[in-house]
Design brief:
The protein has 326 residues and is of the alpha+beta class. Helix content is 26%, strand content 25%. The chain contains 9 helices and 15 strands. Responsible for synthesis of pseudouridine from uracil at positions 955, 2504 and 2580 in 23S ribosomal RNA. This is Pseudouridine synthase.
C-alpha cells in the first residue's frame, strides 16, 4: 500500500528502486535524506541489524547505491513534530526566501541566505533553508546543500538540484577551484601587510553540543586570504577569501589576528560591539558576497554576487559619515 508513505508512521515495509541521479550515493546518506527526522543512530542500527536490504542482501553503511538497486526500507517511527513544523508555521520565512534567490536553472539554485536562519533544521532548530526550499519547490526531486554557512552568516549558498551537479561542485570544492569572497567588519585598523593567515584550527564540541574552534598545533591546516576594502575610525571592512573550508574559519582567523568580527557571539569583542550597538546592527557582520565556479553542465565560468542586507549597508553609511567628520 503506497499511500502509507506520507503518513507520520511508515507502517509498511517499502521497496524503492534507485534512480540514475541517485547512483553512487552512500546508503546511510540516502536513508538520512529519505527518512526525514529519523536520528542517525537509528539509521545505522537498522542497517547493522539487516533490516535495510539492497537487492535482498545485507549491506554496510558505506555501500554505494547503483541505479536499478532495489532498497528495502523497514517501517520507521518519525516524531510527528519534525514532520510538520517546517512548512506550516514558517510560511512567511519561506516566502521571504523566494525573494532571495539569485540564480536558478535545472542544475542548481543560488540563494542569498539571511542572517539568523540555519542552513539545516537540527541542533534544536526545526527549520532551515533546505527545508524551506523543499517547501518552495515541492516538485524538485532533489535539493541538497553544496556547502554550509554558519547560522548567523549571510550570503551566497549553493544548492544542487541534481546529484550529478552536487558531485561536480563537490569535486570543484575538493580541487579548491571555487573561489568564495566574504565581507567582514572587524575591530580596529587591519594592517595592510596582513594578507594571509595560516593558523591550524581545532574543533571542540562542548557538552551542550555547541561547537567552539580554536587555533592549535593539533588542528587542521587552515588558510584565509585578506584584503582591506574600506577603513573607518575604529573598524575595517575586509574581504576574506578562505582557501580551506574549516568550521568558523574566518571568524577564528580574524580573532587570532586581533581583529574580531562585529557581533560575533563566540569569538567577538564586547567593547567593539557596544561601540557599534548605537548604529542599530545586532547581527554578525560576516557576509558571503561572491562566488566563482564552473557551471556543472555548461562548463561556463560563473560569478555570482549577493548584496549586503539593509542593516549592514546602513551601518557602513553611518561609519563613513562618522569617519568623514572626525
Amino acid at each position: 500500500m503506497s499511500h502509507s508513505e506520507n503518513n507520520v508512521i511508515n507502517a509498511n515495509v517499502r521497496f524503492v528502486t534507485i534512480e540514475s541521479d541517485e547512483d553512487q550515493q552512500r546508503i546511510d546518506n540516502y536513508l538520512l535524506a529519505k527518512l526525514k527526522g529519523v536520528p542517525k543512530s537509528l539509521i545505522y542500527r537498522i542497517i547493522r541489524k539487516g533490516e535495510v536490504r539492497v537487492n535482498k542482501g545485507r549491506v554496510k553503511p558505506e555501500y554505494k547505491l547503483q541505479a536499478g538497486d532495489i532498497v528495502r526500507i523497514p517501517p520507521v517511527r518519525v516524531s510527528e513534530k519534525t514532520d510538520t513544523v517546517p512548512v506550516s508555521t514558517k510560511l512567511n520565512k519561506v516566502s521571504e526566501l523566494e525573494q532571495q534567490i539569485l540564480f536558478e536553472d535545472d542544475q542548481l539554485l543560488i540563494i542569498n541566505k539571511p542572517s539568523g536562519i540555519a542552513v539545516h533544521g537540527g541542533s534544536g532548530l526545526s527549520f532551515g533553508v533546505i527545508e524551506a526550499l523543499r517547501a518552495l519547490r515541492p516538485q524538485a526531486k532533489f535539493l541538497e546543500l553544496v556547502h554550509r554557512l554558519d547560522r548567523d552568516t549571510s550570503g551566497i549558498l549553493l544548492v544542487a538540484k541534481k546529484r550529478s551537479a552536487l558531485r561536480n561542485l563537490h569535486e570543484q570544492l575538493r580541487e579548491k577551484t571555487i573561489q568564495k569572497d566574504y565581507l567582514a567588519l572587524v575591530r580596529g585598523e587591519w594592517q595592510s601587510h596582513c594578507k594571509v593567515i595560516k593558523a591550524p584550527l581545532l574543533k571542540n564540541e562542548l557538552s551542550s553540543g555547541e561547537r567552539i574552534v580554536k587555533v592549535s598545533d593539533q588542528g587542521k591546516p587552515s588558510e584565509t586570504r585578506f584584503s582591506v576594502e574600506e577603513r573607518f575610525s575604529f573598524a575595517t571592512l575586509v574581504k576574506a577569501s578562505p582557501v580551506t573550508g574549516r568550521t568558523h574559519q574566518i571568524r577564528v582567523h580574524t580573532q587570532y589576528a586581533g581583529h574580531p568580527i562585529a557581533f560575533d557571539s563566540k569569538y567577538g569583542n564586547k567593547e567593539f560591539d557596544q561601540q557599534l550597538a548605537s548604529f542599530g546592527l545586532q547581527r554578525l557582520f560576516l557576509h558571503a558576497a561572491s562566488i566563482r565556479f564552473v557551471h556543472p553542465k555548461s562548463g561556463e565560468e560563473m560569478v555570482v554576487q549577493a548584496p549586503l542586507d539593509k542593516a549592514c549597508k546602513q551601518l557602513l553609511v553611518q561609519l563613513r559619515n562618522l569617519t568623514k567628520y572626525q
